[in-house]
Structure formats: C-alpha cells, structure tokens
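Milestone 3.1: sequence recovery, worked example.
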C-alpha cells in the first residue's frame, strides 16, 4: 500500500491533480500529449511527472522513442479505500476527491 501522506502531498498541487485526472479519463498518454494539454514547459512537466511517479501514483513505460504514462490503480484504490473509511469526510472538501477516486475504480 502506498504511503498516503506522500500521495496526498503529490496530488495537492493543481497541475499534478490535473495530470492525474487527464490520465484517468484518457488512459495511457505519451509525454508529448501531456505537455500539449497541460501548457507546462518541458522541465516543469518532467518535475511533476517525477513527483507523481515517486509517490506511486503514476507508472511509465518505454515504447520505441516515447515514454507513456498511466495511473497506477493500486494508489488510487488505496485513496478511495481511505476516503470510504471516513464517514466524517462526507460533506467536506474531500467530496471532490472521493468522487474522483470512485470514478478511477471503474
């Protein structure tokens, strides 16, 4: 199980959360597509992707000359399980995260 404090820290940045949400909706994507969509510079995108990989949220694989990024479902399942175990989180700012994580399960 991933260290949830590290995962939450990584997802606490709006740019990184946007990257994860995009990959959740679109599936595996090459770096070029992530760069075009995010509007981030190459170095900034690389830093965000590295932080998400180190947190265990993303995985990467090489395919010829491309690096393809995708979500590690185990990390999002761990977050969803955590959110579901906390009924006091209902009605709070965690509702958006809870909805995002439930979508990632399916």
């Amino acid at each position: 199980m991933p260290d949830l404090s590290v995962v939450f820290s990584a997802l606490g940045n709006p740019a990184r959360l946007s990257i994860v949400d995009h990959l959740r909706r679109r599936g595996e994507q090459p770096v070029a597509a992530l760069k075009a969509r995010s509007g981030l510079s190459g170095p900034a995108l690389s830093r965000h992707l590295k932080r998400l990989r180190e947190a265990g949220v993303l995985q990467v694989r090489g395919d010829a000359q491309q690096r393809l990024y995708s979500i590690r479902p185990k990390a999002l399942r761990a977050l969803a399980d955590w959110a579901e175990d906390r009924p006091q989180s209902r009605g709070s700012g965690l509702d958006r995260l809870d909805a995002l994580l439930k979508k990632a399960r399916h």
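The chain has a mean pLDDT of 85. Strands lie at 29-30, 58-63, 66-71.
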